[in-house]
TrEMBL record:
Residues 11-407 form the FMN hydroxy acid dehydrogenase domain. This is FMN hydroxy acid dehydrogenase domain-containing protein. The active site is at residue 302. It comes from Cryoendolithus antarcticus. FMN binds at residues 90-92, 119, 147, 175, 247, 300, 333-337, 356-357. Belongs to the FMN-dependent alpha-hydroxy acid dehydrogenase family.
Length: 414
């Protein structure tokens, strides 16, 4: 090699260098039923695949000869420092990937300095998950949020909220895109049932109660398909001071006109925790979240597991950001597989990103250590992307950092 370039060091074939490596290694360890439950989307798998591939249409516009020796990846969420703008999304049944389940994930998040969501279908109590990340002084090192569905049993929903408040959770992530479950052929083919021995303490069910019925039947028994903005958001605001964030909505009538323009032209209660959030994909639902007093939204399509054929979240993000006009905080999840993906999402207007499946793959690969590998991989990639684009802080990451390919081929400024 010329110019004193370093000679590459051979790397063993089983070393995890990137998230696709982790996915492959983890998937080889999981039994078929669990692997397809975690890795599959709904119906024809269109949305789950586009969630990750859609990032490739956005190209980076680097600035050169910038001193990036002190580049800082940190940001803040719920008043606490994050080492970089990432959280682990709430996802059910971590213990199906590793016996330590959500406790291992919580410890890994604490070590990495990122936030974590707790699913209503977690296999450990909120108290255990929070306690797993205690510092030497007995204080949780990270913030957690609690994920909720709209439940038929209001009393149970209120018990979950009170427990989350008591344990110090900062927000409710209200999953709003699931009046019913999506059409999940792989779960049906495998007659997916919860493995023996898993408990569901947050929704007050044990393994035998869950295993008697299918996943669809379990969900239908709990979930309220009459949910609506006018009833459910005011009720939540009346019973908690936690922030409310909305997660999940699929109606997107403006998508065609928006993408055509984009690609063709270059241009409470006091004394409690503080917020509420939900899955959103549209300008219309972004405005509804603002009007009903939600604190934030998650631009999300449930990892492609609900309605197939909705847009990738990275493509839905710009419309939601434009509609919000700075009036509500916006996060995004879905398809993030690299630090560069995080960078692109922030450039398009997200405040923070969340990952779900990568954490599951980390657990399946090597428990807490596997989740740590995943988080450190994304952090390193994100910092390197910042440095190579000339950004010294997350505030430097703006729309000016991105280009997008027009429908006729040339690269356009956003």
């Amino acid at each position: 090699m010329s110019g004193g370039a370093p000679i590459p060091v051979p790397v063993s074939g089983d070393r995890i260098l990137c998230i696709p490596d982790l996915q492959k290694a983890a998937s080889q360890k999981l039994p078929t039923s669990a692997r397809e439950f975690y890795n599959s989307g709904s119906t024809d798998q269109i949305t789950i695949n586009e969630n990750s591939t859609a990032f490739s249409k956005y190209r980076l516009r680097p600035r050169v000869l910038v001193d990036v020796s002190k580049a800082d990846t940190s940001t803040a969420l719920f008043g606490r420092r994050l080492e970089f703008p990432l959280g682990v999304s709430p996802a059910g049944m971590h213990a199906m990937a590793h016996p330590d389940g959500e406790k291992a994930t919580s410890r890994a998040c604490a070590k990495a300095g990122v936030a974590m969501g707790i699913s209503s279908y977690a296999n450990y109590p909120i108290a255990d998950i929070r306690s797993a990340c205690l510092s030497s002084s007995g204080i949780p090192q990270i913030d957690h949020v609690i994920q909720l569905y709209t439940m038929k049993d209001r009393a149970m929903q209120l018990r979950i909220i009170r427990e989350a408040e008591a344990r110090g959770c900062k927000a409710i992530f209200l999953t709003a895109d699931s009046p019913v479950l999506g059409v999940r052929y792989n779960e049906w083919r495998n007659d997916f049932r919860t493995p023996e021995g898993l408990e569901f303490p947050i929704i007050e069910r044990d393994t035998e109660m869950i295993r008697k019925v299918t996943h669809d039947d379990t969900f239908t028994a709990f979930n309220d398909d009459t949910h609506n903005w006018a009833r459910d958001i005011p009720w939540l605001k009346s019973v908690t001071g936690m922030e409310i964030w909305i997660k999940g909505s699929h109606y997107f009538p403006g998508l065609h006109r928006f993408l055509q323009k984009l690609f063709c032209y270059a241009p409470r209660r006091e004394g409690l925790a503080t917020a509420i959030s939900a899955c959103i994909l549209t300008a219309e639902d972004t405005l509804m979240a603002i009007e009903t007093g939600c604190h934030g939204i998650i631009v999300s399509n449930h990892g492609g597991r609900q309605l197939d054929g909705v847009p990738a979240t990275i493509d839905a993000l710009p419309e939601c950001v434009a509609a919000a006009a700075g009036r509500i905080r916006i996060h995004v999840d879905g398809g993030i597989r690299s630090g560069t993906d995080i960078f692109k999402a922030l450039a398009l207007g997200a405040e923070c990103c969340w990952v779900g499946r990568p954490a599951i793959w980390g657990l399946a690969y090597d428990g807490q250590a596997g989740v740590e590998i995943m988080l450190e991989t994304l952090r390193i990639e994100f910092k390197r992307c910042m440095q190579l684009t000339g950004c010294n802080s997350v505030k430097d990451i703006t729309l000016a950092c991105l280009g997008v390919y027009r429908v006729d081929g040339p690269l356009a400024r956003l």
